[in-house]
Write a structure and sequence with these properties.
The structure holds two protein chains of two kinds. Chain A is mainly β. In chain A, 0% of the residues lie in helices and 50% in strands. In chain A, strands 2, 4, 5, 6, 9, 10 and 11 form a seven-stranded mixed beta sheet that branches. A four-stranded antiparallel beta sheet of chain A has the order 1-3-8-7, with no helix packed on it. In chain B, the strands form three sheets. In chain B, strands 2, 5, 6, 10, 11 and 12 form a six-stranded mixed beta sheet that branches. A four-stranded antiparallel beta sheet of chain B has the order 3-9-8-7, with no helix packed on it. The chains are: A mainly beta, B mainly beta.
């Protein structure tokens, strides 16, 4: 069964450092997403990506964040200068289309800890 | 404002008994609602969805959910719980005016289901 995979499963980084979270979406999917979940809080939408560009982003997704699909298979989330409050579980998701009746398929998440 | 709420942090049920995980929503227009499950060390897995049509939606692993417009609820149910159903369950719904075209879902806080042998 195809699945979304994320690496690493856990990343510890020092405040101010850059991190790149990696995702391999399901191969025939066209729409890609990042979500995050701060411990004890709700899952929050960060960004959606289609046709090599951002289609929507939330207020959380500021200039410190960027996404890229560098090689047609990977989908990365970069945080340029991490802050303590960036510590969270980050989920990548992909979907066949963006219609309202299409479910997303999620990876297992990357737990980012900023110290 | 659009919202999805899961009023219970934890649900405990004995194996073989029916289970219910509650979700209520407040969305404008026709809602579409999802249930996802997260097993330990796994990603969020789709269980079922309500778009339109039958209020009783059947999904994976024997789960079903009933959309109730008058009570603005979308409770997840299973007639006979298994120990392997123990996981974190999330309800999700649309987040705003553009939600029909994008995956900008809003999520409940999650309910931890523990099924005891």
């Amino acid at each position: 069964e195809p699945e979304v995979t994320q690496t690493p499963s856990h990343q510890v980084t020092q405040m101010g450092q850059e991190v790149i979270l990696r995702c391999v979406p399901i191969s025939n999917h066209l729409y890609f997403y990042w979500y995050r979940q701060i411990l004890g809080q709700k899952v929050e939408f960060l960004v959606s990506f289609y046709n090599n560009e951002i289609s929507e982003k939330s207020e959380i997704f500021d200039d410190q964040f960027s996404v890229e699909r560098p090689d047609g298979s990977n989908f990365t989330l970069k945080i340029r200068s991490t802050k303590l409050e960036d510590s969270a579980m980050y989920f990548c998701a992909s979907g066949r289309d963006r219609g309202r009746n299409t479910e997303a398929f999620f990876g297992q998440g990357t737990r980012l800890t900023v110290v | 404002a659009q919202s999805v709420a899961q009023p219970e942090d934890q649900v405990n049920v004995a194996e073989g008994n029916p289970l219910t995980v509650k979700c209520t929503y407040s969305v404008s227009g026709n809602p579409y609602l999802f249930w996802y499950v997260q097993y330990p060390n796994r990603g969020l897995q789709f269980l079922l969805k309500y778009i339109t049509g039958d209020n009783l939606v059947k999904g994976s692993y024997g789960f079903e959910a009933e959309f109730n417009k008058s009570q603005t609820s979308f409770h997840l149910k299973k007639p006979s719980a298994l120990v392997s159903d123990s996981a974190l369950y999330f309800c999700a719904g649309p987040s705003g005016e553009n939600a029909g075209n994008n995956r900008k879902l809003i999520w409940g806080l999650g309910t931890s289901l523990a099924v005891n042998p």
